[in-house]
Amino acid sequence: MTDERYDVVIVGAGPAGIFAALELARSNGAAVGLHGAGASAEAPASAEPPVASGPPRVLLLEKGHGIEHRHCPAKQRGCSDCKVCAIMTGWGGAGAFSDGKLTLSTEVGGWLGEYVGAEELGRLVGYADDIWVEFGATSDVHGPDPDTAARLVLEATLADMRLVPMRVRHIGTDRSPEVLEGMRRELTRLGVRIRTDTEVARILVADGRVTGVALSDGETIEAGIVIAAPGREGADWLAEQARALGLGLTNNAVDIGVRVEVPSAVMEPLTDPLYEAKLLYHSTQFGDGVRTFCMNPYGEVTTESYGGITTVNGHSNSDRGSRTENTNFAVLVSVLFTEPFDDPIMYGESIARLANLLGKGIIVQRLGDLKAGRRSTPARMAQSLVQPSLPSATPGDLAFVLPYRHLADILEFLEAMDKLAPGVNGPSTLLYGVEVKFYSSRVDVGPDLQTKVAGLYAVGDGAGITRGLVQSSASGVVAARAVLGR
What we know:
Elements: E1 2-11, H1 15-25, E2 58-61, H2 74-77, E3 101-103, H3 113-116, H4 118-134, H5 146-158, E4 162-164, E5 168-170, H6 176-189, E6 193-195, E7 200-206, E8 209-215, E9 220-228, H7 235-244, E10 249-250, E11 254-263, H8 264-274, E12 278-282, E13 289-296, E14 300-306, E15 309-315, E16 326-335, H9 344-359, E17 363-366, H10 367-372, H11 378-382, E18 394-395, H12 404-417, E19 430-438, E20 442-443, E21 456-458, H13 469-484
Parallel strand pairs: 1-2, 1-9, 2-6, 9-21, 17-18
Antiparallel strand pairs: 3-5, 4-12, 7-8, 8-9, 10-20, 11-16, 11-19, 12-13, 13-16, 14-15, 17-19
Helix pairs in contact: 1-6, 1-13, 4-13
């Protein structure tokens, strides 16, 4: 039974889906056009039905809750493996309760530049940033002055590391829900239909053209255009849809590592001028790429759930009154498999499951204990200079979880990083495990992010094209402009 018909259905209410909806709803039907007519080589624009004049009728579907109903019990009693994870799904996507960092750089945050070009990506980053500010993101931007940047880059080079100086706008975990709620109100005002707690079962296609979506309750919604923006949590779903539709998929690497927690004072030589210190390193023993990720000055360690497994993450607030005495960041080792094994997501999940099995969730260990070859115990944790900001984490031994190669890479990285921030490699430093970043299999799309199925677009982190708030937002804009260009 077909219950409704729309010009455009957007699957997923994370940044990619929200920004696609904003671009469409604010268009007044004007042809914006990106890359000429905006059609991919596989699916020419003439194969699509035109969108009606005036603003297109847009439906935005999200399987998670509205922002006001997203509450996670993990901090009080550990991850409960909720049927729908309130941290990973819902209005605003996985980024709703993240640190809320807008990285204003084209060098990090995904691979969108491979589709639109470096110059266009720079414009899109600026455009997306302006919209975030419009809805309440702080006007303050963190970033070093040229002399400080040059000094820090040199110091990193002398430590055999590469520092990527970046401009960062920090929204904050506390402020992000308010910003995202403002976007929801604007979309509602502009006539976009929004349905949360609504799961899409599959994308419908006939004769090489998208025709709509089928919901898990059996309802069918017709649409000439579908923008798939399911986010990281929906990556497996999108990969399944792609395989069913005969779309190409390319495996991205999976990043596996730990979340490091130290006294904030230890990291201030880097966080004061940079806020986010993006450090890249190649281990001497194995040649693996190792990097920092998601640095949270004065923040707290948190958890997130992926389909029955719990991994670790970090947040920080913009309100100075809610700051902690600790700073946390991830140290991640990138792994890309080829043959005969080519499922990096399964590999990462298996390591996370092992950590959950041994630690009944997240394991925390003092660096000194790890180096001494012993597990951390509550008594040893009590002796630490750093008190864990995630009290539900279980003191344990990460050497039983992480493969030797990963563990060796992480220890080597911390030793090198200690030259930039003395104390990072100290015995009281806490390591939480495991942190896994699943970069979704990349869906085969054209320069406008349209698949070979006419009218079907794949955007954001779930499509394996981006890995951050800004580029994810920008990818939604790219798809929306391509639609409007028809």
